[in-house]
Design the sequence.
């Protein structure tokens, strides 16, 4: 990839302290994001996937400094984001927008859509005052709403329409990067498809870059160029969409992909059932964090933390954090215990 | 749970120190020299000095405060300015009367308030609900001295059922308890109703019904226990407020309780007694709050997670 | 196919909500059968009335909702003729239900054991000791580790997946003949969803119960159901066996759903969304409810409501295209399989 690096995340950590005991001291930390490193190139869509508690949303929030990260570096378009003061950070947010899962909660109920959009433009001072009315109409049309609807309040719209307003607001300041935090998760499929198509269209037209945070792997497969799989605050696998979906290397990714119910009653899939729940991020397992549920775990996995790495047969920047990538692939390393069962569905 | 109780007890220390400082300052913030007040307006300087000496009023303030604190812990608040009898002798008998009155009234409020609230919630928007809520609104808005006077007029004078004054025999208890407990009952009824209406919408109530649980048990077993959680707080606050708010009721019914003692002592500038009363009320208030917090935890196991 | 015995037959069920004097028809003439020992999926988007239909079966609709018509025949008896007491004896006993939100569907102030014991006490008169033994047995059955310990725990001490297992244990306590699962895995992570769906399937085979699976997820339908009813705006628009529904969907709405679904198992060039939005319940179109969003709608569709009609092989469709009255293109192709086929 020879594209321009737009967002670089280095060793990002986000710990949330837990208070306790008689004196309410910090007794422990929730290690929501623990040493995460990745790069996003201009114009691409990178999805972060994983189950609840894996740290995907926390990562998005930390990048925008909605929660101040505990440690690490965030470099956007050559600027060190974490070093910016409040004023410069506000300016920076013009280029980095976010769309949330629940558009209703993120829109001011007492402002009309027009006021919301104008306010966004006002704060970032992107469009000359006299052109703003036109720009609002233009934005409304872009996201598939009627310009006259701009004078309505958020509660007068349906869920899908509100998400369009959320998108319009994000677009109003001409951002370079949009973080979509479960942006289509609450929508019904017929509406979800409308919004996904819209997002794709804008990406082509405006050369937008998306960091797409989602748990629905169907959506992720449709929208992404590259995929990051997270488990308990760490990246377990990263790679382009084709490699991840067609050739997953990490046992967790394999289990995750195999667990998705497929809308085709004739399709036979090997399903890997993971036993038990995701452990608590307060005291994550030692070594590889997946070892408590992994069918292939050994002593080494309990003791040594695997780093992201590739094997010569993996291409396109595809990396996985597992000690036994090659051995599992070749069938040399067999499941070590019966914590999972493989079954024809 | 133990950690929680220990932590709450430790948190009481600064609160109680604050209260004692306030109470202690009463003496020193009031205009004039306490010794002079004690000695009387026309007492000779020598008498005043003697009193100052005896009370340690010449010591630095912090030392005076610590002496006060040490005495207060032993329930020794000195002597009354009016009759030189130990303050405890004045306060304690009166305190028991007021405590009794407050406890009975609270029990009355809880009993009446819960029943009214539950009925109201279960029969939302029916005549019973609307009537209960109207009565509750009256109960809440009516000054209790006026309610007391009306009760005396009707039940004592017109019907002759209850004694209009005093405290002790059963037919002396009824009217003051109603007078003092009505506002609390109204608040508890309203709180119970809204809390029940909230709980009855919850998913786990639907689960209970889906199990085949009878409607009566759905209400009393599944809903009430959860609905009571916020009500407990209100009950605790009510009890504290009652303890300090018995003055008017005690006056109306000529009950020799602490409320009246407090008012009388303020008027007589009997500071040691005032100090003792205020301190006792404050301590009880703080303790009740502690008990509320603990019972809140017992009811709502989730908070124990910290 | 139709010769099978049906454990449940719902006919023309109508459930309305009366809000400020206005009637909102949430379930508007719903008809479906649940064959014995099989799983019926009810699929639809929010507002389709699928959950209300399920709650109506056990008459768990509270004020201001009311069942205003229809029949719910369970093993030949119409549940709507039952007294309150009779229906209570069915609930949690012959027909059980599990819900979408495992986090809020258990009472926070009682232990897991107490909550499971309750159903056993009501329907089987089991005392505390026997009830606890049975509760532990049930927790073991649904795959909860160290059940002796779990039985004394409160719901907040369990994860979402564990709570849904407890809900299932509770629902299975009295060996129900029909389990209604209302979006049982929607709130759960996908690896946990796989566990729970597998558990329901295994238990179904073991106990021989029938299941109604209410979901918005077509993947869940394909994997767990034998028959499917697709609902839109309070009505069933298509009823078919699961293979027919996915291989040869006929109602334009079903086709629309499949075309707009982003899939994790194949690469798709584009999603084809259904245009527009679901009409608000107080402003339903006069004709076919789907007509304003349907690419094939004609005047007939806009003005007249089609009936749910048998089209052979046990399949039922509510659409003018499959009737003699159809006034549009007689060669219309509602479903083109190549659109969603794999184009790697």
Sequence:
């Amino acid at each position: 990839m020879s594209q321009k690096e737009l967002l670089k995340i280095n060793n990002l950590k986000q710990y949330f302290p837990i208070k306790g005991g008689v004196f309410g001291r910090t007794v422990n930390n929730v290690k929501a994001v623990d040493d995460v490193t990745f790069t996003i190139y201009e114009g691409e869509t990178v999805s972060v996937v994983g189950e609840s508690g894996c740290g995907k949303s926390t990562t998005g929030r930390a990048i925008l400094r909605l929660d101040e990260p505990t440690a690490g570096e965030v470099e956007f378009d050559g600027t060190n984001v974490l070093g910016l003061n409040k004023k410069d950070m506000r300016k920076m947010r013009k280029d980095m927008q976010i769309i949330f899962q629940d558009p209703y909660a993120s829109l001011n109920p007492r402002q009309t859509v027009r006021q919301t959009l104008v306010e966004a433009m006002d704060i970032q001072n992107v469009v000359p005052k006299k052109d703003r009315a036109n720009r609002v109409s233009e934005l409304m049309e872009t996201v598939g709403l009627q310009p006259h609807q701009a004078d309505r309040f958020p509660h007068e719209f349906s869920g899908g329409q509100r998400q369009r307003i959320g998108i319009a607001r994000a677009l109003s300041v001409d951002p370079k990067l949009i973080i979509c935090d479960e942006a289509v998760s609450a929508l019904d499929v017929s509406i979800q498809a409308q919004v996904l198509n819209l997002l794709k269209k804008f990406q082509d037209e405006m050369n937008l870059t998306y960091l797409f945070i989602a748990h629905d792997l169907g959506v992720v497969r449709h929208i992404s160029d590259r995929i990051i799989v997270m488990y308990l605050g760490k990246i377990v696998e990263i790679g382009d969409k084709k490699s991840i979906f067609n050739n997953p290397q990490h046992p967790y990714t394999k289990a995750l992909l195999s667990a998705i119910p497929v809308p085709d009653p004739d399709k036979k899939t090997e399903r890997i059932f993971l036993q038990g729940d995701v452990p608590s991020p307060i005291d994550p397992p030692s070594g590889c964090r997946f070892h408590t549920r992994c069918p292939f775990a050994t002593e080494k996995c309990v003791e040594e933390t695997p780093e992201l790495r590739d094997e010569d047969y993996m291409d396109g920047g595809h990396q996985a954090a597992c000690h036994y990538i090659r051995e599992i692939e070749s069938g040399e390393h067999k499941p070590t215990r019966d914590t999972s069962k493989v079954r024809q569905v | 749970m133990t950690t929680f109780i220990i932590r709450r007890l430790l948190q009481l220390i600064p609160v109680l120190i604050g209260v004692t400082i306030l109470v202690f300052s009463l003496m020193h913030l009031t205009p004039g020299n306490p010794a002079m007040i004690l000695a009387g307006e026309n007492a000779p300087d020598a008498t005043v000095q003697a009193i100052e000496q005896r009370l340690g009023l010449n010591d630095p303030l912090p030392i005076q405060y610590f002496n006060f604190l040490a005495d207060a812990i032993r329930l020794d608040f000195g002597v009354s300015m009016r009759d030189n009898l130990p303050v405890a002798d004045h306060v304690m008998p009166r305190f028991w009367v007021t405590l009794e009155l407050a406890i009975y009234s609270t029990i009355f409020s809880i009993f009446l308030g819960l029943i009214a609230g539950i009925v109201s919630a279960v029969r939302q928007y029916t005549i019973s609900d609307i009537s209960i809520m109207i009565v509750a609104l009256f109960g809440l808005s009516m000054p209790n001295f006026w309610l007391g006077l009306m009760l005396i007029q009707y039940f004592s004078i017109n019907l002759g059922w209850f004694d209009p004054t005093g405290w002790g025999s059963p037919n002396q208890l009824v009217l003051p308890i109603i007078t003092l407990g009505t506002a609390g009952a109204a608040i508890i009824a309203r709180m119970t109703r809204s809390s029940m209406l909230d709980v009855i919408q919850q998913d786990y109530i639907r689960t209970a019904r889906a199990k085949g649980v009878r409607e009566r048990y759905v209400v009393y077993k599944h809903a009430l226990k959860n609905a009571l959680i916020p009500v407990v707080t209100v009950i605790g606050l009510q009890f504290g407020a009652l303890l300090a708010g018995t003055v008017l009721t005690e006056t109306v019914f000529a009950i020799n309780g602490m409320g009246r003692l407090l008012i009388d002592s303020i008027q007589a500038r009997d500071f040691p007694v005032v100090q003792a009363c205020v301190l006792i009320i404050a301590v009880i208030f703080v303790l009740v709050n502690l008990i509320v917090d603990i019972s809140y935890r017992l009811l709502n196991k989730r908070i124990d997670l910290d | 196919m139709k010769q099978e015995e049906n454990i449940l037959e719902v006919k023309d069920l109508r459930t309305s909500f009366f809000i400020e004097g206005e009637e909102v028809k949430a379930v508007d003439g719903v008809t479906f059968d649940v064959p014995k020992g099989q799983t019926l999926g009810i699929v639809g988007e929010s507002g389709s009335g699928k959950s209300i239909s399920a709650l109506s079966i056990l008459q768990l609709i509270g004020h201001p909702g009311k069942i205003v018509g229809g029949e719910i025949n369970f093993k030949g008896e119409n549940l709507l003729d039952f007294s309150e007491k009779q229906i209570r004896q069915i609930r949690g006993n012959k027909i059980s239900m599990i819900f979408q939100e495992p986090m809020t569907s258990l009472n926070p102030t009682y232990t897991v054991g107490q909550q499971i014991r309750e159903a056993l006490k009501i329907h089987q008169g089991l005392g505390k000791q026997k009830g606890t033994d049975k509760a532990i047995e049930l927790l073991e059955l649904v795959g909860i580790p160290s059940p002796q310990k779990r039985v004394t725990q409160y719901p907040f001490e369990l994860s979402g997946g564990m709570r849904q297992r407890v809900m299932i244990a509770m629902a299975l306590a009295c060996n129900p003949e029909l389990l209604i699962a209302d979006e049982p895995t929607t709130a759960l992570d996908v690896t946990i969803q796989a566990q729970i769906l597998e558990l329901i399937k295994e238990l179904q085979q073991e106990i021989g119960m029938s299941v109604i699976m209410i979901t918005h997820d077509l993947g869940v339908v394909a994997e767990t159901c034998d028959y499917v009813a697709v609902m839109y705006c309070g009505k069933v628009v298509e009823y078919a066996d699961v293979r027919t529904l996915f291989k040869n969907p006929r109602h334009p709405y079903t086709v629309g759903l499949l075309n707009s679904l982003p899939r994790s198992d194949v690469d798709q060039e584009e999603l084809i969304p259904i245009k527009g939005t679901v009409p608000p319940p107080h402003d339903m179109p006069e004709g076919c409810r789907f007509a304003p969003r349907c690419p094939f709608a004609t005047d007939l569709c806009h003005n007249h409501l089609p009936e749910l009609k048998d089209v052979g092989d046990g399949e039922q469709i509510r659409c003018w295209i499959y009737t003699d009255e159809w006034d549009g293109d007689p060669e219309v192709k509602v479903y083109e399989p190549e659109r969603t086929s794999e184009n790697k």
The first strand of chain A starts at residue 5 and ends at 20. Residues 1-95+175-224 of chain A form a domain with the Rossmann fold fold (CATH 3.40.50.300). Residues 189-206 of chain A form the longest helix (18 residues).
